[in-house]
Records
---
Amino acid sequence: MNIVDIENVSKEYAQHRALDDVSIAIPKGCIFGLLGPNGAGKTSLIRIVNQITGPDSGQIRFDGALLNNSHIARIGYLPEERGLYRKMKVGEQLLYLAQLKGLSQRQAMEKLKIWFEKFDIKNWWDKAVSDLSKGMQQKVQFVSTVLHEPDLIILDEPFSGFDPINANLIRDEILELRQKGSTIIFSTHRMETVEELCDNIALIHKSRKVLDGPQALIKEQFKTNTYYVEHRERLGEIVPSIEVKKETALADGFWRTDIHLKTGQTSNDLIRELITQVEIRSFGENIPTMSEIFMRAVNEVPEA
């Protein structure tokens, strides 16, 4: 079951086509990476899901129903450009934003107490937002995004400006929110974070979707059927029958060699061929990183 179904959505601004017939299905209970270069159309799509703007054509279904105003309370949105009221006190502001999302003052106070303890920010209640650092403000806005326990949480570059300790704190909270049943749409340029967190991804480039699906299946699709071996001596000189893609001398006297399997050859066949020839320290398949997949998919898109 999908929480969001984006069906043939197009959007144009002043003769610029921001989205061109984009269709994406976002399964319930996953962390979904929405990827793409700057200007690809990601923010336009996020704004349409949030009902800030509407599509020129196509439609969006939320939990099976056509997207409508009643769904706003079930969505939490953390935009890349943060939007807190700088002169308001932190506690006052969070209470106000929580009530806009449908919580009573009592409910909001109970939930805020939990979050203030969890983030160790109990002494921030009466601080003005303008007195907080950028990272501290982002913590406050993250709390405002998830306080009403939305079914769908949209995070646009949520780690921007965080130091490693607070980035890990937010990361753990994202994983816990998924475990509790929320679906997270995660828009970022940090491919290592996508690699670590995202179950599914979609890549938008030049206003069109060029790739989507479970991360594991996409990695399978982009495999190059190559393996790496760390060993003593140069393989290319000892085993001329193998197809060497790259050889690199390591600092400790070992070599790393990337080998392409021949048609019909298995990794077991390769190991059997090598093990009698050289001392092997490690062996494994070269799995493409999300950064490599991103670059390859983007570069394969033809010019308009």
---
Amino acid sequence: MSDLDPFKVFLELQLALPRNGPGSRRATEAALTLLPPLPDDAQILDIGCGQGASAFDLLRLTKARITAVDLYDVFLEKMNARASREGIGDDRLVIKQADMEALPFHEGDFDLIWSEGAIYLVGFARGLKLWRRFLKPDGHAAVTECTWLTDNPPEEARAFWDAAYPQMGTIASNVAAAERAGYEVIGTQVLPPQDWWTDYYTPMREKIAEMRESWGDEIEPVLAEADAEIALFENNPGQYSYVFYVMRRKG
């Protein structure tokens, strides 16, 4: 491969997708139904928002003010452009560039923390511990985490995720980790296969084919890695998925 930055290739691939991870508006709405009603002036923090798919869903599903944060300005530029097109002002949506490990907020600023497909970047247990202080007493959190759905996955799947995300747990182990981090888990929801395909893997495959045509062999290692992840999910149905963990802060 040339001196081309693999991360720039990854970003180009991600910027072409409707969502930057498995999920759907249906899943976001279903997770919200597990929560008690939010006040009209609720403050929601969306961590690792990417291009804002979940944030824009939350705007339509609640009356809350959303603060959306991500580390990468290219995602936030697209999010700002969409907010402008849709006439969404900062009374409803605040977009900030920030590191999820060093968030610029205060104790008890938010009624609800939301994070879809991002907490793995710091680890499920560690992320919950880091973010808990930003919740009001008895505030809530809803996050998705890639999770084993079986205690005995096929060797192919185990080997891939042991290399890519060795901290990946089961629903039971993640619930226990959340409780140790100071939360009560009030519900879990497994994302169905269509939430991986419709807005994520299917358009990703289409973009991979387009990039192979236009770029050639120099980016093949990055695209082959993405292809392998898609094939793994396709070939190992029911072994793992993203799971929504809906929680209440204790104490």
